[in-house]
Design goal:
The chain is built from five helices and two strands, in the order ααββααα. It is mainly alpha-helical. It has one domain. The protein has a two-stranded parallel ribbon. Helix 1 crosses helix 3, helix 1 packs antiparallel against helix 4 and helix 3 crosses helix 5.
């Protein structure tokens, strides 16, 4: 079985995605004590979730295989690392240095476990 598509690793990645969206929502909320913070807390994670769900590599074995907007594997990897990177930075920017480091370590562990998926993504150039 491909480790990047193993059900336990997919659950791990799903939880990381939820943590990432929560981190950027928290960051948005902390940007203002008034209504703009609430707007950012909703729109930033919503925008990232849409990007995450729409731009996919066709036939990605770790996803549904659907690709509303087909992208190369490198672009998909950049999207994923960009979302996780923004979440890590969001925690850092809001003063949660330890949580930022923990999330960063968890993302690295996920990608190490998913080495076969990373290699597959890098081979998808069309």
């Amino acid at each position: 079985m491909i480790m990047g598509s193993h059900p336990i690793n997919l659950l791990f990645r799903f939880l990381l995605e939820l943590l990432a969206l929560s981190a950027v929502a928290y960051w948005g909320y902390k940007q203002s004590e008034a209504w703009p913070g609430l707007v950012l807390a909703v729109l930033v994670p919503l925008g990232l979730a849409v990007i995450w769900g729409v731009f996919n590599v066709p036939a990605d074995p770790s996803r549904s295989g659907n690709a509303p907007v087909a992208v190369t594997g490198i672009v998909r990897l950049l999207i994923e690392t960009g979302v996780f990177g923004m979440a890590i930075w969001s925690l850092y920017d809001t003063g949660h240095l330890r949580l930022s480091a923990i999330l960063g370590a968890l993302v690295i562990i996920h990608y190490l476990i998913s080495y076969d998926r990373i290699l597959w993504l890098l081979s998808q150039n069309n």
